[in-house]
## 1
Amino acid sequence: MEVEPYYYHPLENIEDVDVFYEAVERERLTKSLSPERPYTYWTIELYDQINGIRGGGGLGILAADTRRVAEKMGVAFALITPFYPYEVRQNLKNGQIVDQHFPVNYRNFGFKLVDKVFIKCHDNLCQLDVIEKKFKNTRIIAITEPNFGELYSGTSGSDHRLYQEVALGFGGYAALKLIGLKPAIMQLNEVATFFAALARLDELVRNGMDFYEAVVYTRKHTLYTNHTLVQAAEAEFSEGQFENYVFPNLKSLAVKRWLKDKFSNGKLKLSSVTIEIAELKSGVSKLHTRVADYKDIAGNKVKFKAITNGIDMDAWVLAETMSFYHRANILDRFNAPTPNYDEGIELLSSEKIRELKRYGRGILNACLKDRPDQNGKILRFSGNDFIFDFKRRFVDYKRPDLPFRNPDRLRNILEKRNAHYIIAGRVHAGDETMSNKLRCLLEMVNRDDYLKTHVHYIADYDEKLAFGLSVGSNVAINIPIVGLEACGTSWMKDVANLNMLISTHDGGVADASINSYLSVSGENDEEELNMLYQRMEEAILAWENDFDLEFIIKRQLSAFLPIISGTRMMKDYLDYLFPM
Ligand SMILES: *Cc1c(COP(=O)(O)O)cnc(C)c1O
């Protein structure tokens, strides 16, 4: 018999997780989901470097985590996404961000060519390759061709983006048919995947279903997951663009008419039609669901069901820490918190925390070996060094520059403990404003002899660096402008890896009480900045005191573990999609 070394589970009451999962798998899922009728997940972005697909940020990270969690839970699952033949890596040259483009071959990543499908563009046939990679009960089906371009190439309302989105939707739907799969559910990860649901609607009508029945059927089986806060910010496509890329792919006149009707002044936002084609709608945190400002075509506010994002703990948490979580009965074998997880957390001592962070520090050093900072210096930290990190895309609302508004104060704080501050985050391709902001920030840092050797920017932020920093630093700083982060997942990696979290009360962080972590709040930037500096000082002191360290880390873990578990997220989706 195979022994599961760290898993121990008392079979005592009906709350028991095993009983629950068995019920889920037997009673519900087997009826609704099967290998031929999988849960389908559509995403224009996947961040899964091991499988050759590099995304831009959180949206793609979430997609990869969702598939891996489905694999562990035994859920029949197919993820449909583009395979981009080029990826962008970022470098820093003389303080300036430089993008480099590298070709990627899917054959080097275990994908197999299935066959070809065709879509129409400008009344020409465009040939798309369908490639596939299987992972137990799940698979990635990707659409690709040599001129598919890069992720988010061109502006968001451009012809090329529309082409990519149409190729994923119509091409991906044709690919499912080709492979012999029928979607039990279509989860649309943001509106760029709308065309997949449209392809289904068109097929139903073409096969003889009454148009209204087909709309109802498609709606019932489509979930639109929104990650964006303001509809107004979304790009529009013109009717002319649809004439070229979308309408030629529709066989049903009724569907074409329905879609044409949705244009207003010759323009269309995909969210307006995605809202219509999906009866099920979700947002990615409790706060996001409350503040997301979306109207349907009739002008009514759209209600989103809150299903907070989670992470695949196996992918993001240090192996030694996962062993501890399982041994202490904090996580069950599906990586969901056990009913008594709080008792397990009580077993976490300051010694254990320090020991696990020492392992993590080694991984961080290995990760930094070929990634110099802005001054070409290769960093190597001892177990005694103190590290703050700010690792997130370099965009305005996340406020990467806020901690640098008072450089004297920042220097004082770092000097007290001879601490380091690591910044990692990619600038969106072509974002001149943020690229300049980063350059100014680094110039300012380099003018100060102390900051120059204690503040480090590491270019080309990716999964590996995200992991290295989560397991190897002491304190993570997450300070988006409140109301602008939909959920965020990098802070989840920090909490799970026993970093101290300093954060504004925003996104998924606000799912928990404001007293469960080192929170930053205030009436304005200045007040928030002052509180941020206080929290940094507090964190340094807490790491020097066993009692405080233990108290803060346990409190965080206890409040957030149920929130950050990807298994919990998948269970929430299944409950929503297949109600008992
Ligand atoms: C986790 C992760 C993200 C998500 O970051 P958020 O700012 O929390 O949305 C983005 N990029 C990479 C490489 C990550 O690992």
## 2
Amino acid sequence: MTVTEPPPTVFDELESAVRTYCRRFPAVFAKASGHRMWDERGRVYVDFLSGAGALNYGHNPAAVKAAVVDYLLADGPVHGLDLHTTAKAAFLERFRDVVLAPRNLDYRIQFTGPTGTNAVEAAFKTARRVTGRTDIVAFTGGFHGLSLGALAASATAFKRGAAGVPLGHVTRMPYEGYAGDGVDTIDLLTRLLDDPGSGVDLPAAFVVETVQGEGGLSAASPRWLRRLADVARERGILLIVDDIQAGCGRTGTFFSFEEAGIVPDLVCLSKSISGIGLPMALVLVRPELDQLGPGEHSGTFRGNNLAFVAATACLDHWADPEFTARVRANAATLAGLLDELAVKFGHLGCAVRGRGLIRGLAFADDGLADRVSRAAFNKGLLVETSGARGQVLKIMPPLVTDEDGLRHGTGLLADAIAAATAEGDQQ
Ligand SMILES: *Cc1c(COP(=O)(O)O)cnc(C)c1O
């Protein structure tokens, strides 16, 4: 039998080799709604990818879509540098009323360039300015973006290797559990910081993810986070929580650090803050640390007013107790379904990672997650891998996926695991 190669597409012909997700999910998508996407041929996919965390409220949520369309039709300014606009005022007021005030949080809001990595750059600059120190402590498995300052803090060697210049001023420390159950990584961190013979200088800041979205879905315990916050406070080190992926409701609360009861000095938000996939990023900074002067961290797209309008509409959810109850119920449903998978595939060493609706499945065979992700695509499920070796499946449905959607998606996932292991047996 001769297999005819499909003709090259416009993407093969013109798009840069650096493209990545589209290689794993080689469909041409034409429509998206809620937790589903359709390709140009009308084939449906269940989306457990959620734009790598940028679509917590699902694709094209109706209320957000309507707010964006109304604003455009009324000729609201779309681009505004950092000019004051009614859209920005509405966002700031809603964020204060729905997010900050109910949690007793006092932060200034710095709008940065619209990518997560730019928010991280801004947080690092502030921490370095305020403390007069240069080093940032980042953790094993951490991911903070790909521009040079943030890239230095990102753990994966492959990503850092693309920089082409030396990356410096970051000290790597072990995340919780990194060195096995016998090693308390906060004790180790404290010892290295306090010993003048350790070779570790006092850093400007710690930067940490409470759940490592790109680093294999390891999650820090509330106790570990509280101890980290204590170590920072006692030594005048600033605590930056990078909540770009785990924030905006992923773990069940608006911020991922709420359960731990800590108050970071700086918080980075991006990905799902606009809620409809429009680029937007910000840094929350304790008022006394807000020390960058006018223009010291500028950028053309810090005033994406369409994103402000969308973000304001999304924040309505957080004023609605039914929404938060639903997210918690969905997290419990997903946990139950994944636990069932872990039992069913116990012979593969299947283990559940993460928290809330940012979850991972790891297997004894590090190569299996990749094969499952590819098999899942063939069955109509978008699910990516995480970790430096792509060794963990990342399960991230929209927060608002209904129970049927969660069951359907995890059912497809079970089929994909079975298919991927059957392939393996034939080899
Ligand atoms: C995605 C991500 C970033 C970088 O965001 P970009 O918009 O891709 O620059 C930084 N930190 C975390 C935790 C992320 O998940």
## 3
Amino acid sequence: MDHKPKERIEAYRQPAGGLDSIKSTTITLWKEDVPGSRYKTLLSQNQPDGFDCPGCAWPDREHTSTFEFCENGVKAVAAEATSRRIGADFFARRTVAELLRQSDYELEQHGRLTEPLAYDAASDRYLPISWDDAFARIAGHLQALPDPNQAAFYVSGRTSNETAYLFQLFVRLYGTNNFPDCSNLCHESSSRALPQTVGVGKATVVLDDFEHADTILVFGQNPATNHPRMLNELRAAAKRGATIVSINPLKEKGLDRFASPQHPLDLVNGGARISSLFIRPMLGGDFALIKGVAKRVLELDDEATAKGGERVLDVDFLAEHCHGFDAFASDLRAESWAELIAAAGVPFEDIAKLAQVYAQGKAVICTWGMGLTQHRDSVAAIQMLSNLMMMRGNIGRRGAGLCPVRGHSNVQGDRTMGIEDKPTPAFLDRLGRVYGFEPPRAHGLDAVDTIHAMRDGRVKVFVGLGGNFAMATPDTPLTFAALQNCALTVQISTKLNRSHLIHGQDALILPTLGRTEIDLQKTGPQGVTVEDSMCMVHLSYGINAPASEQLLSETAITARLAHATLGSDKIDWLAYVDDYARIRDEIAQAIPGFEDFNARVAQPGGFHLTPASRERRWLTPSGKAQFIVHALEKDTPIARARALHGDRLMVLMTARSHDQYNTTIYALDDRYRGVYGQRRILLIHREDIAKLGFAAGERVDIFTVWHDGVERRADGFLLVEYDIPRGCLGAYFPETNPLIPLDSVATVSNTPTSKSVPVLLSRSTHAA
Ligand SMILES: Nc1nc2c(c(=O)[nH]1)N[C@H]1C(S)=C(S)[C@@H](COP(=O)(O)OP(=O)(O)OC[C@H]3O[C@@H](n4cnc5c(=O)[nH]c(N)nc54)[C@H](O)[C@@H]3O)O[C@H]1N2
Ligand SMILES: Nc1nc2c(c(=O)[nH]1)N[C@H]1C(S)=C(S)[C@@H](COP(=O)(O)OP(=O)(O)OC[C@H]3O[C@@H](n4cnc5c(=O)[nH]c(N)nc54)[C@H](O)[C@@H]3O)O[C@H]1N2
Ligand SMILES: [Mo]
């Protein structure tokens, strides 16, 4: 059953995709022992009458008639469709202490959870509990808290709109805005940056715009692994002659060449070229890089004006739609080239080249992922990108726009539904009006602040609607202690993970249906809705038999929890479960843009929740697209650490391997980066290995340089010589989360700086 590849490092010479991708799919299905009857699930993925792929938030082509092959989508579906199960007998045979000794990879392999379980301290085991008793126990804890703000309700981004909406309604009626969510660890920087510049924190483009763009700038993303279907769009654009630029410290495989399994010719001719230019900033160098590009665009405009040529700036757009351009331009003129170049880690020639490509583009899309959002100055960098796009009016017209590429398949929808620790007064007013109550007004806790609060004893109850909070968050030992300091932890999950094992005094595991499964209620099978990264809202119907008869849907769990905690005098919680269309009718009343929800979402392909920015309506305080001036920050934790340690100081990014889904480890390879059978590896430049006095293939321990005197370390990482900028390191999370200090966060968004951790290395004292 176990397919354990041998540990090896061997450069991958093929394009991304291709036959290896098809081979990997076969291995996945075999490993998960997916029953033949469930193979059809793969073909129903992202089809008009099938389920929305739980893999990522990249949108689907409308009316797809052919199966859009995606190796990693198959992994996500197969992980849910696996034939393996764990129930009471599994937990009776193992103490929690024993399970804790297993790796995240091993925990994932056990299969689907099948029945509700409660922790028994006397035996250190999880024992079966009835659903009614489980809800009563949680309700008891919640009712006993002297202040509702002593509970926190985490949401991971697979949850449907219907569940998210009910969940926030329940929690706000209970009395708190404590909604830490996976967004806080992910695109929060985008969600905080964009409303100030263009008014809405969402993409201004739709998939169709990718067919009309002549230039696509991809910042800090690894689509071959994380958004494989995006490569089909990039491939088509490149074939049409569009210029694609990858801005990334790594030359990621899929952004170089891609062999589409949909195009048989690609499989034999070495695939299609994707990027024609690679700009390789050092980690966290993007703010300076983008500001440099903007400065250069201004210079090009000056040159054009001097020669009496065509303007480079879109002067009409600036005049009609923008505010603050003059202040922005004078700040750019005053900025020092030497400082921008040093901070970006990119030579002037490359900045000028990127500016040239940008200035020549008549329709430019810029996309970005975690490479932009998980740094201290992420919000400023994204606002600078927005400034750059506004300079040439690249927002709100065909083939052009801003495109944050979100992660979890419904993370964007969950926010739209109100999973938000800082809700707007307008949102709360409307919710309060629809249900006749006064919602809590004080801002709640986000993910990082929830950990602080649990550690300090200010939060006593933690409820997780999906996800794996213990492993997704930074400063692992501190986070573990925080969770263990709770009176109650509840995890609503499909599969076993470490968050079940790092628990409060009282602890419950509530197993749930996955999105691929039939959700049968009184009025028949229920569909749920999701919103993708480009604001398309559509229905999703599961088609597999549930993994166990005892599973409840997330919607049912939420409704029954609300019923047990608050009673049903005011709201008939259980009626929602019979027919999810009722929930949609209420969403239609409470959330702008969802008018006539049930009818509109029944249309094939669903509907577009058009953000005002796409229509050049600017929901900003000035009513215009707002230029924002940001100075280059010089006194940063990394600069301070470097002042102490000189060039021994390295900066570490923590990212995903090809065979993981966030904290879920499907397998141990990272094929495109040439890593097989292992995860404790450290990507490092050849000259840095020599400079630090190591040899490739040696193991090192990694230590964080931080100012609080706490030792943060991760041990036994294999040095892998790699094409990465000098001074930069790459490794996988969650293994490296112990290195990220809880208070090392992005300004404004409070997102952990997962892509820039100041570290030192020393020869490992641990055997491999
Ligand atoms: N198969 C699979 N699919 C997934 C996920 C998964 O784990 N597995 N996760 C989902 C989720 S929740 C998310 S958020 C997305 C994540 O998708 P990505 O945003 O692609 O996430 P990462 O793997 O963290 O890769 C970050 C990329 O940014 C680059 N980078 C790092 N630091 C910098 C920097 O300072 N500047 C620039 N310009 N680039 C930098 C890295 O080299 C890497 O290519 O994927 C989603 N899809
Ligand atoms: N160092 C570092 N840390 C990071 C990141 C990084 O780049 N570097 N990335 C961050 C990002 S972008 C994100 S989004 C977070 C992700 O953080 P989370 O969303 O908390 O983590 P996941 O690993 O996606 O959650 C996996 C678990 O979700 C449960 N699950 C799966 N499907 C379902 C379902 O349909 N319903 C329910 N109820 N449960 C389900 C399973 O039990 C599984 O074990 O991690 C963040 N952490
Ligand atoms: Mo994410």
## 4
Amino acid sequence: MSEPPRDSRAALPAVDRVLNAPGAGGLVERYGRSLVLDTVRQIIAERRGAGEAASVEAIVTASAALLDRLMRPSQRRVFNLTGTVLHTNLGRAPLPEEAVAAAVEAMRAPSTLEYDLASGRRGERDDHIAGWLTRLTGAEAALAVNNNAGALLLTLNALAAGRETLVSRGELIEIGGAFRLPDIMQRAGTRLREVGTTNRTHLRDFADAIGPDTALILKVHTSNYEIQGFTAAVPASRLAQLAKERGVAFVEDLGSGTLVDLDRWGLPHEPTVAEALKAGADLVTFSGDKLLGGPQAGLVVGRAELIATLATNPLKRALRLDKIRLAALEAVLRLYADPDHLAERLPALRLLTRPRTEIAALAQRLMPAMVQALDGSATVALVETNSQIGSGALPVSLLPSAGLALAPSPPSGAAVEILARRLRALPVPVIGRIEGGRLILDLRCLEDEVEFAAQLGRLVPDRP
Ligand SMILES: *Cc1c(COP(=O)(O)O)cnc(C)c1O
């Protein structure tokens, strides 16, 4: 062991002296003695290692700063001004207040999670949402699991383990992260049989591939890409018919899926769950936190006997939803009972349908505060831009939007990064996107204008 530098040891206070200092009392009160003690020791050790002297006050100040950082929640609220409404990294759909209240209630007290009040007997946790899902989609039965990846894993395992699943080569998707369809299928224990080609798959490709070992035909929504040019895909209704004739199951993974026709609000058409069922799918899987606008969940709807098979599979238990999310999901589904007011009440839909004129007016109002906060370190311009739905929904459609473009002066790649970092350092971090040397703040998802403007005064000064 090497001796620490003699002079630095002499210049550092003992731990006890720091803990007895006037400023330390408040820290102990706030954070507890053992955590403060650990922190003070850590700070003193760091100074000793660096060969630096420090006063009692300096150690107290450094400890307070470290404790403040340590105790700050890691998952924090942000302003999503990226222009991607359902941003997976920023938590996808913001939930309506009805869902927030329901989740809080479920957290706080015992509930009827698996209890039937009428009979006084055990109930089913999925009953809270199954009624709404069947009503809204026309399905015979429904269940919910952790997410759509889980829904797919459960479906494939329950219906096709040890047997073959047919998928078009044009639909072997990777969604991002570790979600790659062939991997999920392998883990589900089903053998992937690819049919057709990347750009063209025909009904006869499926018909020729069905054999005694085939359990299932899977159609996957190509959520995040589009194959263009010389292409052919088999319509779901034809696949459903073929599956029925040959006695295999037909499952459609809609990805985002929606319960209502988005055309109604001028959004591009996305296949609805009801349409997929009507076209003949035995089961349809989709996410709870994409276009549906609810909490993270994977939903499976369709034929009752298949849902029953899924419900009794051991993976269902491993993938089941907790009471908090079930409560939130139920509250969101209840909003769908009244589609006429959905666009006001469901934040995801409200943000997606927000007109450009309204967003541009917001940008105009915020411009002076932004100019003042930046204090000459960057210029501010109003811009027209395009938002994306995100989460792989409607990959190629863009929503006309507006915002502010911040350009550092003088311009440089490093300067725009620093600017982005300054905005991320605000009390409620602001996340924009860098494009062509500018920081674009797409204001589509900014609803709390007053709070946003109020915190701009706390922008840290520009650092070179
Ligand atoms: C998003 C998506 C998934 C994964 O859904 P999660 O809810 O994120 O697990 C699966 N399939 C498709 C087609 C998707 O778009």
